[in-house]
């Protein structure tokens, strides 16, 4: 256990830990354990945290999570785009500011789901707090490179309108005719050029799912869009085959309540 510290020493030690670049936001009690704060010191420690909060030198978030007071430098996170051109960076490590606003034209060519690095820019003070915005300076990892949508044609130009909220611009397809795709086909497109300020999105068709709106095509579209598994593993199929082969209604129903003639509605819980 650390020797008893004065209020000033406690404050300096708290700020030293919270301002460290490797600090991960944690609840007040957890931070106290990390600092070796004992029962006799806890009251002074709590007072020091709350005093630093009142002075604006740190922030107390939900559940008394201790957060650094200001953003600075560069942060990494996941980008979420808005159809109107701006977006937000959701930090990998929570901070006092929350999501970082990325104004139009400052997103490099990031799209929703990309992991990016942003430069933090201080914009002044609003309602007594410092306001910030960001500029994406590097795309660390692409979140998506395949999209599902309906193939359309304007004049001699083919393009796909992506479904969902990930990409908000059409994807132009230079070689649609070579894939024997037709207008109103539901297709899977792989991006070869991401959209930018003066750059249009381009892609290639990697799969034709069928006519948009046809039975079964919507289900297949969802599977491709969210990259869901479409086949069961061999071990599952083998187990199902074995269960079907050994099933005997007379013996397997023994001791069970037979509800096969009833109409039953079930409601699954949240978990």
Characteristics of this structure?
single chain, five-stranded antiparallel β-sheet, 271 residues, flat, five-stranded mixed barrel, alpha+beta, 6 helices
Please, could you describe this protein's structure?
With 271 residues, the chain is an alpha+beta fold. 23% of the residues lie in helices and 32% in strands. It contains six helices and 13 strands. It has helices spanning 7-18, 28-35, 39-54, 217-225, 234-246, 249-252; strands spanning 26-27, 58-60, 65-68, 74-81, 87-91, 100-102, 115-126, 129-141, 146-154, 157-162, 171-172, 185-193, 201-211. Strands 6-5-4-7-8 form a five-stranded antiparallel β-sheet, with no helix packed on it. A five-stranded mixed β-barrel has the order 9-10-11-13-12. Helix 1 packs across helix 3 (39-54). The longest helix is centred in the N-terminal third of the chain and has 16 residues, at 39-54. The protein starts with 6 loop residues before the first helix and ends in a 19-residue tail after the last helix. The model has no long low-confidence stretch (mean pLDDT 86).
Give a quick summary of the entry.
The strands form 3 sheets. A 5-stranded antiparallel β-sheet has the order 6-5-4-7-8, with no helix packed on it. Strands 9-10-11-13-12 form a 5-stranded mixed β-barrel. Helix content is 23%, strand content 32%.
**What class do helices, strands and sheet pairing give?**
alpha+beta
Percentage of β-strand residues: 25-35%
Q: State the strand order across the main sheet.
A: 6-5-4-7-8
Helix content: 10-25%
Give the termini distance in whole angstroms.
41 Å
Detail the poorly predicted runs. none
**Number of DSSP strands?**
13
Taking the sheet with the most strands, its summary is: 5 strands, antiparallel
**Shape field:** flat
**Helix segment tally:** 6
Radius of gyration: 28 Å
SSE run: HEHHEEEEEEEEEEEEHHH
> Kindly state the mean pLDDT as a whole number?
86
